[in-house]
């Protein structure tokens, strides 16, 4: 699609000193950290596919559709014209196009359709590429990806449903899944009285036939307070059965071909993520089939949650990357005080700092992805690392994203605050990953739980610091201080955020000193590992090579290094 060009002159005045439209982006080709990281962590076999998808996801047309899908928010259609309940959500056509683009390019299915080394690394890269264009569509992508492992553990259900989730086709029709070319899955956990504390769930499940337990049919009654992507074909749902809190697959249509009673009460009027519908739902004698063992609902669904938390890392890293690209583009084409803004010394500090943070987020995400791949191959150490590093990454990467979006917006001056630009959308999207799939405190408490319950978790983390030992005095000191901190068991709950933050920063530092260019790694260690760091952007210390960092961040504008 040809990018829009502003008219050279208007009757009243000539427009000068405004950037050209960014146009098509090569999200893979322009991102050296991504290309190197995917290769390093074992995803190289998907490089050609990622290169192609990076151009599709980065096309101006895709970004325009994302804008449309968010501007024209979904609408609830409770009834048809004859008064029959249909509980459907209508979306702008752009939303369906984006769903098709993501599914047909295997965003939710790649890791499971192409298992083996690098499968989850490539999946992370696909997620990172598409999330730069649109976050709302990525919610059902993430849930569909994450639902596969728990479904596979119940073959009575998984054998029927998993092939639908991996079909690679988007079929938006509201008809029984058996009649569709492909399906997606959502998740019903949160209730009004408790989201983090799902043991307070009040939804009940009664056996519908003579049998009970895994694979048996139930009828569910209750409510769910946050249900995203309600046009998904089925939902992993928590409810109390006789044997305790259990997990069920609740489809939109019963196996007998009838509309399952899932009553959408209303759609949430959300801050961001507006293309994606999130709703409140009531279940009245709703058909479901038990997934996992009776009374083991939390461990069953937590496996899905774990993969969703990993998605949050990739998605927040993507938001940072796109905010950075937009900020670099704007400041490279705009002049203030007789100099391009990107050449103003203080702005170079801000931009370089944003670039360092974005690369730190990506390097950690891809390292976790590799651990997930190795864990799938039976490596227990990798599994322990994946378990703790996913929680650490979910907390820290998602926590850093809103401030990053704000700073990238500020680089644009006034136009960054205006809806014509993508920046308000990125800014509204940024806090979400911090809240859903476990809000900050809950994630930090999960880090503590993992430390105590999984013997291999802390040693796996410390091994990363050991691998980097000797490369940076600041990093070695941070790793040693962290070890001492972990040895002190007093009042750990109240200290959980500080502990998690220091784990995250030391981990990112250890990865950057081994894998990133010296300019980026040195800037990270000199700022984040120093005692004077406040977390604000643009305070990199003297001696940082801004030119090298900016040049790496966006080679399309080589002038940065000047
Ligand atoms: C846009 C959106 C879409 C969503 N989609 C879905 C969905 O599809 N399916 C679904 O099931 N849920 C969904 N959720 C719900 C989301 O997962 C929950 O909101 C989240 O888990 C937090 O639960 P809560 O809202 O009940 O907050 P609460 O559990 O009440 O927590 C409130 C605050 O207290 C903190 N807190 C809780 N326990 C502790 C503790 N022990 N110590 C210290 N602090 C604590 C939390 O970190 C949080 O900051 C969605 C949420 C949003 C915003």
Summarize the topology:
Blueprint: H1 32-40, H2 47-58, H3 60-71, E1 75-79, E2 85-90, H4 93-104, H5 110-113, H6 119-133, H7 138-152, H8 155-165, E3 185-188, E4 204-207, E5 217-228, E6 234-241, E7 244-251, E8 262-267, E9 278-291, H9 297-333, E10 335-336, E11 339-340, H10 345-376, H11 380-410, H12 423-429, H13 432-435, H14 440-453, H15 457-468, H16 473-487, H17 496-515, H18 518-528, H19 546-553
Parallel strand pairs: 3-6
Antiparallel strand pairs: 1-2, 4-5, 5-9, 6-7, 7-9, 8-9, 10-11
Structure description:
The chain is an alpha+beta fold. Among the domains are: 179-297, Butyryl-CoA Dehydrogenase, subunit A, domain 2 (Beta Barrel); 298-553, Up-down Bundle (Butyryl-CoA Dehydrogenase, subunit A, domain 3). It contains 19 helices and 11 strands. The protein has helices at residues 32-40, 47-58, 60-71, 93-104, 110-113, 119-133, 138-152, 155-165, 297-333, 345-376, 380-410, 423-429, 432-435, 440-453, 457-468, 473-487, 496-515, 518-528, 546-553, and strands spanning 75-79, 85-90, 185-188, 204-207, 217-228, 234-241, 244-251, 262-267, 278-291, 335-336, 339-340. Strands 3, 4, 5, 6, 7, 8 and 9 form a 7-stranded mixed beta sheet that branches. A hairpin with a 2-residue loop joins strand 10 and strand 11. Helix 11 crosses helix 17. It binds flavin-adenine dinucleotide. The site of flavin-adenine dinucleotide has 25 residues, from strand 3, strand 5, helix 13 and helix 14.
Contiguous low-pLDDT stretches (5 residues minimum) are: 558-562
CATH superfamily grouping of one domain: Butyryl-CoA Dehydrogenase, subunit A, domain 3
Largest sheet: 7 strands, mixed
Assign a percent range to the helix content: 40-55%
Count of individual helical segments: 19
Number of strands: 11
- Strand residue percentage: 5-15%
If you consult CATH, what is the topology of one domain? Answer: Butyryl-CoA Dehydrogenase, subunit A, domain 3
Oligomer: single chain
Helix and strand sequence: HHHEEHHHHHEEEEEEEHEEHHHHHHHHHH
Rg calculated over all Cα atoms: 24 Å
Q: Span from first to last CA?
A: 32 Å
Q: Which whole number gives the mean pLDDT?
A: 96
CATH architecture of one domain: Up-down Bundle
- Classification by helices and strands: alpha+beta
User: Which molecules are bound in this entry?
Assistant: flavin-adenine dinucleotide
